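Quick illustration for those who missed Monday's session on complexes.
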Amino acid sequence: MTTIHLENLVKRFGAFTALKTMDLEIRNGEFMALLGPSGCGKSTTMNMIAGMESPSEGRITFDGRDMNGVAMGKRGVGFVFQNYAIFTHMSVYDNLAYGLKVRGLAPTEVDRRVKAMADFLQLSPMLEKPSAKLSVNILQRLAIGRSAIVEPAIFLLDEPLSNVDAAFRAVMRTELKHLQREFRQTMVYVTHDQLEAMTMADRIAVMDHGVLQQVGTPLEVYNDPVNLFVAGFIGSPGMNLIDGTLAESDRGLVVDLGAMGVSVPLDADLAATARAHGVQEVVYGFRPERVVLAQAGAGLAMPVTFIERIGARTVVHFGDGDRRVKAVFDNNLAVSVGETAYVALEPGGARLFDRASGTAIRGA
Ligand code: ATP
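Prediction with adenosine-5'-triphosphate bound:
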């Protein structure tokens, strides 16, 4: 278990800056996900933690020890990549045993730990099989086991599930979380898949274009995104984001939603924060999960344009052009394309962003 501290970390490749001044503390025993779209600098950050790349500026410390110049093999990190790196000429048993033998453990201890790890990862029935004969799913599970078995203080995983099939990915999400709970390693997990980050991580570091956007628990980044990027990126679908203008009215401070053809009042707290902030041009945001259907005439009348039924959830698209809202309901919703529905928002569901800067308007 180790605390990892990234301090003013910058990485340049020639004239291109892949990572811009990143400051992040990954706590002892924490499961931190680095989440963001392709090319945002996740792997670059991970490679610097592992010791495969050197920072252009700033430093990385493990429990206060500066890692600058410390080789990968001396950092006490286990690393699993998207492409499993295992010895295909060896059996499953020998792959698991390899790291323990290299470290000089007694054969009985090697055997005990190999069997325990195989049991944990459901590899016991295939211990004697040659690895070359295994499916991609099992190979990736073996790769995780091979790194985890030496119980590194820090476990780094870079998109380890992107090559495995969807059903197996769901199983592995649970197993990886169990693995981390069992060994209490500090875990850093790179992914562009928010479902993986939301389900496994204690905290998520959301990145975009080489810039750390927000660090928080899954619920914090979902409920209170710090800017428009996080609001749109987190959630499936992301937050509804509608341009609006703040104006005083006899209902207090309202947001004129322009193309939507409606002005909506703000809760007292949000109105006070917005007044203190002093901007007028805003983006009004609300989660699709916070949309409710109102009685005829009570909410905003919108045509149902598209319905996606995804198992337990139904995503309904209302309106078109500049007048669009997405909503998520449970699967027994009785609406059909073409009909008009009345859309309203649960109390407390609204968020405001400064349109010019993109940052959230919220209290201290
Ligand atoms: P992905 O999931 O696609 O790998 P990522 O968020 O992990 O995305 P990085 O691999 O960290 O992104 O890359 C960040 C940026 O740095 C990209 O634009 C990439 O092209 C660039 N980059 C990464 N490694 C190098 C390198 N060795 N030389 C030049 N540019 C690089």
